[in-house]
Write a structure and sequence with these properties.
By secondary structure, this protein is an alpha/beta fold. The protein has two domains: 185 residues, Rossmann fold; 100 residues, GMP Synthetase, Chain A, domain 3. Helix content is 39%, strand content 18%. The strands form two sheets. Strands 3-2-1-4-5 form a five-stranded parallel sheet, sandwiched between helices. Helix 2 packs across helix 7. The protein starts with 15 loop residues before the first helix and ends in a 13-residue tail after the last strand.
């Protein structure tokens, strides 16, 4: 059986009891893999996948887990500050913050191809971790919050930031304790681990971040417009009950004619995306109340420079994917 095929013996994790059994099993597996003295370097984004991964590895090896939070300039509004605050207070493992905004955005300038953007982001991430590892003693392992949909969607659909891509010369060995879980199972495990709800039920966020929602070649002004528009979309859709599984803004690299202060000008559109799903393999568009759509429209066009249109996407997966790139 392939190392990337979910074992038939792994039951769907739907209860705290099943989650506890899984946690105990993975703690033992991580201890066996890492050994008594091994150290793990972990990319800590603050999303549920990396948080659950960090909690599991921390329970197994304690202070030998070193978490690194990289600000690549593609995070949501206020996210770097929030991640550092939450994990600095609630995690015992060492947390290292790396400001790499200029490094990422300079490398991405003028790059429009989605796969090329993913590869650039992935490579720089690996380079950053390699540099951090060289500052530390005895780093042999790289922890990753890979989950099963990441594996299933790699290759024919798209490359994924958490699957493969490690240069051989780095000599990192992967530790991926949740690689065979679906997103709903990861949340059940996160609850059983005692992680706070605002981490366990946080929206999924792609590794390349806003880089795959700033469609086409990324520019700093369009990226900031996306960041501001996305914050407005999430602020409004946070009021829905039940909450969609994922909701965000997309800003494609196109412009159309608009009117501002009585003058014509060219502006970007903001696309609203809201979906519901169980396992991220398929997804359905979520209906958004008209009055909420109107509030989002007004807030965006009045407060986000460079935007003159607001659109609502209603496509499902398939035929679309959840992300635009």
């Amino acid at each position: 059986m392939s190392d990337n095929v979910r074992p038939e013996s792994l039951k769907r994790i739907t209860t705290p009891e099943l989650a506890k059994a899984f946690i105990d099993e993975q703690i033992a597996a991580v201890k066996a893999q890492v050994g008594e003295n091994g150290k793990v370097l972990l990319a800590l984004s603050g999303g549920v996948d990396s948080s659950v991964c960090a909690a599991l590895i921390s329970k197994a090896i304690g202070s030998r887990l070193i978490c690194v939070h990289v600000n690549h300039g593609l995070l949501r509004k206020g996210e770097p500050e929030q991640v550092c605050k939450v994990f600095g207070e609630q995690f015992e493992s060492q947390l290292i913050y790396v400001d790499a905004v200029d490094r990422f955005l300079d490398a991405l300038a003028g790059v429009a191809d989605p796969e090329a953007k993913r590869k650039i982001i992935g490579k720089i991430f690996i380079d950053v971790f390699a540099e951090e590892a060289k500052k530390l003693d005895g780093i042999e392992f790289l922890g990753q919050g890979t989950i099963y949909p990441d594996i299933l969607e790699s290759g024919p659909v798209k490359s994924h930031h958490n699957v493969g891509g490690l240069p051989e010369e780095l000599n990192f060995r992967l530790v991926e304790p949740v690689k065979f879980l679906y997103k709903d199972e990861v949340r059940v495990v996160g609850k059983a681990l005692g992680l706070p709800d605002n981490m366990v039920f946080r929206q999924p966020f792609p590794g390349p971040g806003l880089g795959v929602r700033c469609v086409g070649a990324i520019t700093r002004d369009r990226l900031e417009a996306l960041r501001e528009a996305d914050a407005i979309v999430r602020d409004e859709l946070d009021k829905l009950d039940p909450l969609p599984w994922q909701y965000f803004a997309v800003v494609p690299d196109i412009k159309s004619t608009g009117i501002k202060d009585g003058q014509r000008y060219m502006g970007w559109p903001v696309v609203i995306r809201a979906i519901t799903t169980v396992d991220a393999v398929t997804a359905k568009s979520v209906e958004i109340p008209w009055d909420m759509l109107c509030r989002i429209r007004d807030r965006i066009v009045e407060n986000v420079p460079g935007v003159n249109r607001v659109l609502w996407e209603i496509s499902d997966k398939p035929t679309s994917t959840i992300e635009w790139e």
